[in-house]
Amino acid sequence: MNNIRAVVTNIEGNVQLHRISLDAGGEHFVVITLELADEYSIGADVHITFKSTHVALAKEMSGEVSISNRIPCRVVSVKKSPVLTEVLLDSRAGRFYCLTTTAAAERLDLREGDLVTALMKASDLYLSRVADQADTAGTNTVNKERSHKS
């Protein structure tokens, strides 16, 4: 799982549905959630967690898309296997992985140093509170997924 530290900047919604805006290193993220605990408030330190399989990539993207989270990134590494390709990305928010098909990676001609846009649906991101003061001083982390199931 990918894990990015962020700060809640805005909360919209009602009892049943919430749209949460976050800042992660200067990048804007949006999370849609059905439930929101009272401990999540503007200014709260949180982790944004998401699967590498929930990250799509675009190269030379232009025009509008309905996906809220569009994060400019640089490709750090590309590890191909016959079916899947793991792409390590670096952004202002931190480093995270995208797991895509090798056919898609080849179609995009992904290489180290390429500039890409990572796309993540707001409903595919999850929030958790930063546990303690020591954790808030840490950097963003990437936890390799054991299973590649979506």
TrEMBL record:
The keyword Zinc does not apply. Transmembrane segments: none annotated. Keywords: Molybdenum. Residues 64-129 form the Mop domain. Gene3D superfamilies: 2.40.50.100. Signal peptide: none annotated. It comes from the Bacteria. GO terms for biological process: molybdate ion transport. This is TOBE domain protein. It comes from Prosthecochloris aestuarii (strain DSM 271 / SK 413). The lineage of its organism: Bacteria, Pseudomonadati, Chlorobiota, Chlorobiia, Chlorobiales.
